[in-house]
Design a protein that fits this description.
alpha+beta; 4-stranded antiparallel sheet; 3-stranded antiparallel sheet; 4 helices
């Protein structure tokens, strides 16, 4: 069972493709203008470079923020910071946060040693209208985490004892 959940990464990837297309068109325009009008216009190639930098940042942001569930562990990462990993063998239970908790909090993992780890990788854009209209819906991520943990427990319980 491998599952990857992304919240608003598709928007960043769409913006990145738009910036890439704009950069290509700008390069073509600058080259044509520098050949037809004045050769000094080649200096304006700096503009498309900025567009490509913006596209690269948006590609990176769109592919990075995720919750990834594998048979052995789960990984979550936001747009910045390092990805975090917890092995299923260390998890005692996946808890759904109480109503009124932080908006980004998708779930809480209670570890076997008694610690609690908050899972909040599902970033939502502050400009998305649904952010203002209602509370974020993390039910898909919560269900995937609970199902992943149950699948791990079922696999471990069917393993022959040594």
């Amino acid at each position: 069972m491998n599952t990857i959940i992304r919240a608003h990464g598709r928007i960043s990837i769409g913006i990145a493709w738009m910036l890439t297309c704009m950069g290509v068109l700008a390069i073509i325009a600058v080259i044509v203008l520098s050949l037809l009008i004045e050769s000094w216009m080649i200096v304006f190639l700096f503009g498309p470079v900025l567009l490509f930098i913006g596209a690269g940042v948006n590609f990176w942001m769109g592919t990075r923020a995720r919750l990834e569930i594998t048979p052995e562990h789960f990984i979550w990462a936001g747009f910045v910071g390092r990805p975090r990993t917890i092995d299923w063998q260390d998890v005692d239970r996946i808890l759904v946060p109480a109503p009124g908790s932080r908006r980004r909090l998708a779930a809480v993992a209670r570890l076997r040693d008694g610690r609690f780890v908050e899972i909040d990788a599902l970033w939502q854009s502050p400009t998305t209208p649904s952010t203002y209209l209602n509370a974020p819906d993390h039910s898909r991520a919560q269900r995937a985490l609970i199902d992943g943990h149950l699948a791990y427990l079922a696999r471990v319980s069917h393993r022959p004892q040594r």
